[in-house]
Amino acid sequence: MDGEIYEYDDQRPRSPGSGGGGGTSIHITALDGIINVNSLFTLAVFVGLAWNPSDPSGGTLASSDCAAGNRVAENVVSFHVFAFASFLFSSLVALCLKQAIRLVHPPGSSRAARVNRALLRAGILASAVGSVFGCGFLMLALVNVVQVKLGRLGCGGSASAGAIAPLVTLVPAAMLIYTVIVFYAFIR
């Protein structure tokens, strides 16, 4: 049953066919990775929020007929705030899980940690969902930044589409790979 409490012991070697679910050090390493990546993205969000899209000296390259309106500039700020909230949620959940593991299995302890696998998996899944939403909102913010700098999408001759194409191709592809791997880890 997934709701049962499993014992993890980082010190005990596992045989390949033993069915062991891995140790807490693996979970802590995964949570550290989530926290580190979220920290980098949160820094990017703050840099984005420091930029004022309506500043006339901001260096827009768009012609006046292709210039992005106030709504696009508002979306830049909104999506940065949504991204920040998502990354903060993800990081706080990951930190709480990491702390909970450390409380039941102090470093250097030789006893096995008693971890509720269902709660741990649900927490890691919630943290991953927060990271995915944060990446999505950050991507949308960058799409709007490109529109402010290079002109609206759909405006004839605008360089925005060329600049946005790699962004809207690579980021969702990476998020899909991340989601598949997290889902695979979740069902194992």
From TrEMBL:
UniProt keywords (A-Z) are: Membrane, Transmembrane, Transmembrane helix
Superkingdom as given in the UniProt entry:
Eukaryota
Residue ranges annotated as transmembrane are 33-51, 77-97, 118-143, 163-187
Which parts of this chain are annotated as the region Disordered? Answer: 1-21
Name recorded for this polypeptide: Uncharacterized protein LOC105032606
Species this protein is from: Elaeis guineensis var. tenera (Oil palm)
Lineage at the top is: Eukaryota, Viridiplantae, Streptophyta, Embryophyta, Tracheophyta
| Name of the gene this protein is made from | LOC105032606
